[in-house]
Amino acid sequence: MDERRGAGDGAPPSSAVSMRGITKRFPGVIANEGVHFEAAAGEVHALLGENGAGKSTLSNILTGLYRPDEGEIFLHGEQVDFHVPRDALDAGVCMVHQHFRLVEPFTVAENVMLGDHRGEGRAFRLRRRTIERRVGELSKRYGLHVDPRARIWQLSLGEQQRVEILKALYREARILILDEPTAVLTPQEADVLFETLREMADEGRTVIFISHKLHEVKAVADRVTVLRGGRTIATVSTEDATPRSLASLMVGRELAAEGSVTRAQSEPGEAVLELAGVWAQGDRGDAAVRGVTLEVCAGEIVAIAGVAGNGQRELAETIAGIRHQTQGAVRVGGRKLRGDPRAAQAAGVAYVPEDRLGTGVAPGLSIATNLVLRSYREPPASNGPLLRLGAIRERAVDLIRRYAIAAPGPAAPARLLSGGNLQKVVLAREFSGKPKLVVAASPTRGLDVGAIETVHAYLRDAAAEGVGVLLISEDLDEILGLADRIAVMYEGAVVGVTARADASVEEIGLQMAGGHDPRED
Amino acid sequence: MRIERRLREPRWLLVAVPAGSLVFAFFASGLVLLATGHDPLPAYRQIFEAAFVNTGAIGQTLIAATPLAFTGLAAAAAFRMRLFNIGGEGQLLIGAITAGAAGLYFGGLGWPKALVIAAMVVAGCAGGAAWASIPGILRAFFKTNEIITSLMLNYVAAYLLTYLVFNTNSYWRETKGFNASVFPTGKDLPDNAIWPAATIHTQGGIPLPLGAALAVLAAALLWLLYTRTRFGFEAQVLGDSPRAARYAGVRTRRKILAVMAISGALAGLGGASQDGDFRHTLDADPNGLQKQYYGYTGIVVAALGRYNPFAVVLVAVLIGGLQNAGNTLQGVDFPSGLVGVMQGIILFSALGGELLVRYRITFRRTARAETAVEATA
Prior knowledge:
- The complex is a heterodimer of chains A (521) and B (377).
- Chain A has helices at residues 55-62, 85-90, 108-113, 128-141, 157-170, 187-202, 214-220, 243-251, 312-320, 341-346, 356-360, 367-371, 389-402, 419-431, 449-464, 476-482, 505-512, and strands spanning 15-26, 29-40, 44-48, 70-75, 78-80, 93-96, 175-179, 206-211, 223-228, 231-237, 271-281, 287-297, 301-305, 325-332, 335-337, 349-352, 382-383, 386-387, 437-441, 468-473, 485-490, 493-499.
- With 521 residues, chain A is α/β, with parallel strands linked by helices.
- Chain A has a six-stranded mixed beta sheet with strand order 6-7-8-3-9-10, sandwiched between helices. In chain A, strands 16-19-20-13-21-22 form a six-stranded mixed beta sheet, sandwiched between helices. In chain A, strands 2-1-4-5 form a four-stranded antiparallel beta sheet, covered by helices on one side.
- In chain A, helix 8 crosses helix 17 (505-512) and helix 14 packs parallel to helix 15.
- Chain B has helices at residues 11-35, 40-53, 57-79, 88-108, 113-142, 146-166, 178-182, 210-228, 230-240, 242-247, 252-279, 294-304, 309-329, 336-358, and strands spanning 2-5, 197-200, 206-209, 359-362.
- Chain B folds into two domains: 1-38 and 333-358; 73-292, no CATH class.
């Protein structure tokens, strides 16, 4: 840690954390731009914002993982300059990450001690008993019930989170950052967590609570700072805020509904996609999709809005046949589908996956190979068991030209392409298969403006030609510009479907953030 | 100094790096030779002559190279799909056992030679494939790590072979004759189970074992399979990105089972060739098949050949030559360990050099990443 200036130099004494004019750029992206953030000792301060609003970057700067390109950080009035995360730890800043940083085969006490280089952890000989006793005391005092001798892999996610908090308490953290801590908790566990957080704040610590769920922010925080597009939008007291006002701060752009790129309403045809009570499991075995019922008609664009991680990806994968539904029925063009990508393709499903470089293309293989990834089984790409390399190459040359893909040539590996051109490869492949239904998951994420326009044009043209489009997006501008109907997903379920004409950003924002959560009423 | 990933892998590097590694290896080995009191240049010349020039040298080199070509191809077949079959060793041993049984049985029935050989080839492939299918099934259905299971089965196979030579009731054990009463040995294969060798009429005749010819044929078939068929296409996609493969509709489990079986069959064929071409019996003595570790050397051969079947055969001949030279030259002024050391240095620098194909080393304080190819088309 590098303390250049003395205490009280400029920072208001009441601020435990004061971040001023923080700017952080990544190649092609400005993650934080002149962000101001102040949190006092003894308060729970929520950091609210959509995905990509810059919350994670800001907290990574505060924990020393990134260094800001511009801006100053003061802790308790003293300027600090963190070079490595340990500097931040030494200054009393601890973070509970969304994905825990715990060593699974180790015990709770061992994990708490790990990385502690000031107290017991520094000794060559480990005094397990002492640490276990200390951890036991802490867990009793803060109501964080967990057995210090239990091994991490034996614990539930909620218990593991308690271990992370115990780690922070053991290190006597003055400033604790929690990144979406309730994502892994049941409502009951979340209530217990909130009590603990309040208690820690009452002792004079600063608790920074990152979330995009409005009812939680209302429940636990004293003040809220809202980030949007890498900038600070406002800091408000939660007493004065309503979920509705927070939602519009978070989503902004209230005028977007009327604006820009609206599409001529087409007369929808018959249903190409019918979902009836579909349930599906997430990668962790949890129920990620909970009873979704939805229809997409030919020539219609239906958008699914929602904050990432609310089951949209799993739903898209279920329709594309990559994931099995556990209950319910998926029908495309009247054909019943069940977890088979070939059957889904045969029924006319085209899929533009969110994960472009892992699922959309095989990055190490040639562009030509990637362009036939869905059609290599049939002529002209193959002839029985044999490939027809000439035909595959010709097709690649043709598609590269037609879709204006900027590529060194059909034999170049796909990973050399920029994001926009990679997406064009996926679109060229999927649209040339004459689909009935296109499922596009965050098709413009990470693309530049020109590429976004191209993608939008392809989706619009597809709908005009009578293809049903299911667009999954977190970008409300995109949704309002393209969709005929808008469904909002929250915690795996569709919480509302509205026609674009009747849609309001506020209402959608509220639904996205679980504003209609029954727990709140 | 920092190591960063190359965004582009220029083609010339694919040749320059292995060549540079080889030069480096000879330089480093030269230091070892100097330190042990040998003049490096004459020593290298001696090795080269013993491997490829002297009378009968190439024949001996081919004998050493044939099993390495098979195990190398076996490893290449699986590794191309990022399926890490370390069990070529055990699959070769099992192939030797099953092909040996076929040779003893059908040879004993007095079948014509061609049929007996065909039976041995089929039995060797089947044995190796079956043995490789154990880790294959475990991987496909239970996501067990195939590195561990295939490696452990090598020990099982080696002890099984020893057991079959030592067990009194074993079909493979010789029970008659003087030698058999002194030490347990395997039964000799009947004459019609001995594989023929073609003779190439240069240098006073180089015998080309049938196994070596089969290895070249297998390499060609493997190359066709991986570059010209839907099967190979799917294997490539699965190796590069399992999720993309699942999405493309590749039947992942079937593919794993099939590739493991092919890999095992190639190693098993190497075992059959050991029976038919060279050993003509199962043995358990200190020079026994279990002590040659062809399977492990084959992995290195495959890596040096960058999993290209033809390159694998070529590398097998080079490594086989080096081993052959080591055997021929070993004596008072040329300890046999020296060739082993050289072999180790060559492998080490070749595999170390691989890093330079994929990564580059920069010495700037802050290195700027290369930008992706944007518009060159």
